[in-house]
Amino acid sequence: MKKIFLLLLITCHAFAAFSQYDPGKIKKKAVQYYNQAQERAADDNIISAIGLLLQAVEEDNKYVDAHLALGSLFGNMKSHKKSIHHFEMAFSLDSVYTLDYKSPYSTQLAAEGNFDKALKSLNDLLSKNAPKNPTMLDKLEKRKKSYEFAIEFEKNNPDKSYVFAPQNLGPGVNTAEPEYFPSLSIDANELVFTRRVKNINEDFYSSKLNNKKWEDVKPLEGNINTPQSEAAQTISQDGQLLIFTARDRRDNFGNYDLYFSVMTPQGWSESVNLGANVNSDQWDSQPCLSPDKRDLYFASRRMDGLGGSDIYVSHLQPNGTWSKAGNIGAGINTDADDQCPFIHADNQTLYFTSNGWQGYGENDLFFVRRSYGNTWTKPMNLGYPINTINDEGTLFIAADGVTAYYASDRSDSRGSLDIYSFELRKDIRPFKTLWVKGIVTDKKTLRGIPSTVELIDLATRQTITQVQTDENGKYFITLPVGKDYAFNVNRKGYLFYSDNFLMIDKSPDSTYKKDIALQSIELNANVILKNIFFDVNKFELKVESQVELGKLVQLLNENPFLKIEIGGHTDNVGKPSDNLALSNERAKSVVNYLINKNIDAKRLTAKGFGETKPVADNKGEDGRSLNRRTEMKVVSQ
Q: What is the pTM of this model?
């Protein structure tokens, strides 16, 4: 605070010869209040200092120095409107004496979203009294670019209906201690976050939602918290795996390393270092796990980066180890700081912070979407008022794609950083995500079996999610709405299971429980190919069928002695003879596709059954759609 008053004195000296304001004519009582305020500010008693300055301007409302000091102090307290008021009072009294304060004044305007006026104020300063110090001039020029960016962004994103109203999660979660790095269970009923206790030791806490209120928090159960700091964390969507940052442990590769812990009946297990493929001899932190637990994103300051902190990713290998972490690339990382990655449950939308991409000031929040070829779109700024002239970070977005959580030291915080929730603007939301869970069993023994569960975009044929069930066959998979998906379950020695979730034209609110019994490969075993598609009364395969056909080709290649029959079936609409002919042609279309993929024709038979073998009632459309199907039957091993 001493610097604030020092700047006031320098300003007085520099412009005294040109200004109208004469500090010597201020009432003595007002000066006494001002001097006392200096002493209070030097002791960091800001509230008292502001009170004395208010008395000073009440005693003499033309006291420019007191108005400038109030503008600065209210600005530091984020009371932006009050800060602006007192700066403008000072400017109205003397525009020359106060010229240097156009810079902090512009900052307060920008904090209120008034970027046009902020830019005008800064341009006024730069045109009349640009700093001679190159560092200071560069700082003001960067701020000018931020204001220009904000003005242009608003022109191109004119959603005036959006209301940014962060809600403090309340005393059940937030305290006078800093709380940050929030993460949420897939059903949004449990919150896990980091708290810095006594401003030294970082530990993990959790709170459960009860009647729309967050209950009093508890430390995470088990052995996860230690006397050392456990910082940023990410919990898998199924709640079984936790990856986090720990500092200065004996087995660290650097000062901060990434560790993992698994859920047990007694709570979280003893943690294990993720190893040299993930960790380096530098700072490695801020992990985020993809919903299928196959990709680990994190921030690091290692030497091979593009500059500052970069975002890296490591992939889970079939043998259960993590691959050598790689830089996510220049399309996201810059020569400045890029960090705090968060991959949404849709596994397609990645949020992060950066002060390298053009933004509003310090670290801004950006997002990218996964596009074709597993590349990322260009980073998009989340815009004001989510991003401000200050630092933003530690964002988490719930599965609904609407509700976001972040840490901030807003004016209504209970101490330092508190955790807040707010609603995302529509154009920056990820895909709403539901989930499917169940158990995969052997059809004969009914025992759970480990297997691979895949969710594939039918339009792009891109695998959205791939998970391994546990040893008992249990699985959990996220399901972004707004697209049509093939759902496949595979295990060697079994016929694959196929299903679909056709969600491009609907946005259901329910989740799914799907228990799957896999049929072992044996004589007369059969499976319905639910992702073979034809237009009405047509037998040409639709392009969306290629996902399923690819699985069929894979099955035949892995089992070179397997011979199958492709059976076509219809509903009872139309003439039986026409239906028989149509079903036969559809079966032939599948066989011809397989032959074109180098499957020996001697292993394939096509047969149409028309409407003769219904599996459901033909009275309603639901039943008729089940009867319109393509089946595969094992005829020889």
A: 0.86
